[in-house]
Amino acid sequence: MLMQRKRKAGREELLERCLATFVRAGAIDLSLDQLANSVGISKRMLIHYFGGRENIEERAMTLLEQRLRAQFAPESFPPGTSPEAVVTALWERTTAPQARGVLLLVMDLSRRAWNGSARAKAFYAEQQRLWVRLLMKFLPDQPKVEEVLQLFQGAVLAYLITGDPEPGRRSLARMFSKQGTAGGSPTSRQRVRTRK
Amino acid sequence: MLMQRKRKAGREELLERCLATFVRAGAIDLSLDQLANSVGISKRMLIHYFGGRENIEERAMTLLEQRLRAQFAPESFPPGTSPEAVVTALWERTTAPQARGVLLLVMDLSRRAWNGSARAKAFYAEQQRLWVRLLMKFLPDQPKVEEVLQLFQGAVLAYLITGDPEPGRRSLARMFSKQGTAGGSPTSRQRVRTRK
DNA sequence: GATTACATGTACCACGTGGTACATGCTAAT
DNA sequence: ATTAGCATGTACCACGTGGTACATGTAATC
Q: Rounded to an integer, what is the distance from CA B11 to the centroid of its chain?
């Protein structure tokens, strides 16, 4: 019974190392050999613990979902923050170098989604919900949120390819500088803090 | 000398069938076996004609570039068309069912680009130039064009995954109904939502 | 101490991959 | 007719893939 718990803990920790490897690689397509090697265990054991490649991916995706849900909770920003500040901060966080792996991994899952994978589609939908919920807290205008979200995604794509975060930042900022924000909050000119 | 031309023509036509297959599959990752089978020739001959997988991809990409350059020439729209009309028409064309293959293929190349492939990056850059040139003809406002482009890409991504072209159409339309174009026209007083 | 259940390593397999060797055709210039 | 050069088919290869068989360890339970 003691061993039981220890084994289970061991497996969870193994899963986390798998996810970490996926993030490091920016892809979920790694071969079991690569994955095993990078995780420091034999392919044999990977299959032994998870019972096949599909399960590893499934579990890793679920774990990733949890992590992202925690990271992009609306509580990350103090209430009353201006929408522009929120979006800009999100952009900073997204284009931070150390976030690149996650970004690539998420895009890899998006690819699976548009190639038909049901699981990946669910992942995408979940991410959408997450972001909408977050943004709606600070910008309670659904079409506008929809627009920001799509612009954000396009900007991420361009950023990933070119490596230049500036165009995205500009476009996102432009979207807010052009028209009055909701409620006419007077604090439109505050400096954006990139909370770490 | 007669044979020479015939051979060359045959090879070009073969290349076109390869590109067609890539488009049909929405990916450039097909194995040589699949490709050969779908094109109606033996793998043996594919390599014989093109000299290896890389060359096939390279040539197919170049051919695709040509095709797209022809399709998205500024002459496709009569001068003086409103920017909104142009963008909406482009959206229709992009989300037409028969365009899905090309869309997927282009996204596949984008993926290669963000995974580091120099050639795919060049392809992406070329497409960007193409669209900027086209849009600038009808919307001579560079930041705005940049913004539209990113929004468009994000919308395409969402469309590919969900299959629903409406959110993209809405956001794109919204972007034009909201404000005047360059220079910051003073008539930007839209409906304002109060936050909860 | 015997049994039981899991842990782990070593070979191994079938299959798909890009690519090659070799042999045989076929057509055209000599 | 002979030669040269391309076209094409059939085997074949080395390698990476996910996964399995089997054997051996190792530790808890009776």
A: 25
